[in-house]
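Checklist before submission:
- one chain only
- standard amino acids only
- sequence pasted in full

Submission:
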Amino acid sequence: MKIINMESALRERRNQLIKAGTFEEKVPVVYGEYRSDNPAYVTKRFVNGEMECLDPIRPVGEMITTAAGRQELLQKAVLNVELGRERIPLLYQPIYEVQEDKNFPEVFDAPWAQHGVVVFLEHAEGEEVRFGHIQAEKGPTARIVTYAAGFEYTEKMVKFNQTFGMTELERAFGEAYNALLNHIHLGPFMVPTYADANKTAPVYVDAEGTPLKNATGAHPALSLRETIKKALADARKAKRPGSILLVAGENEIPIQEALSRLWVRGTDYQAIGGIDAMIAYDGWEVTVGKKDFRYGGVPANKAYLIRPKRGFKELIKEDLIIDAGDGDISRLVESQLVGRAYRGTYCAITENVQEITLPSFS
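Returned file contents:
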């Protein structure tokens, strides 16, 4: 079972970069005559697992007064945004299929998510061949949403050459975008009210494995183990077998231990298979101005058993692109940068998810 959390994802990404050696990627950007449908590109370069960034050789105030200087400043900002994105790994990718198309409509009808259904049968002489067909998921309507955020270079930043503060702001921009992506793809699992058929209640057993009515006298690890086994059986019975477990960070180690091989009072319990990956997600929070923003994580008493891919689509009409614009003299703003993306998600929850209420011993 693969464990996916912020720390493990960062380690895996770094190992991939080190293995890849030196390589470059292109990042789209908009300025001057360039538009989102015909952007310019900034080169993002990796060397031995580290991403290179641009260090301006001229004061910010000097750079912002010329077209070439503004372009250089924009390139630096875009690379810092990308560095910020490297700090917040994406956790949801094992669950979703990626579909990217600039021609996506704003709204997708429910039957849009389709898959082929084909079966091979023994053929008898003269029989008609059984033809496959396209079958649609029954999930909700999907919508492409515009997400946007911006940051400003103020006159004070320019006059006092506050490069460090600008760099931190740019990197925070990238962190916020990847945190948004985790939220819009993992948040839907915590929102709906699940039908009874999609719920698995906690199971309590004692140290000998005898079923109990409540937590009194229950063995924590064995009860957690039996609860997850029950969820696996419930999902298989409903013909939507799950292979990914979405959990809160605090439950990652207890669940991992409960699913491993156990030795309790002379009984040898074999490791439980069927789960390919466990994703630990605790959300994200930030304070902007005087307002707190929080993306909720998985509740401590819940876990979600997910059948991935077919019923989950990551829809990308246009990924993050940064646009440089003029300032606002009335607020002493020298220049503005705005990032925007057109994205959506398709989540057929009912057809693919089993909500698990974990045993409680408090």
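Reviewer check: Helices lie at 6-20, 60-63, 67-87, 155-159, 163-186, 220-237, 252-259.
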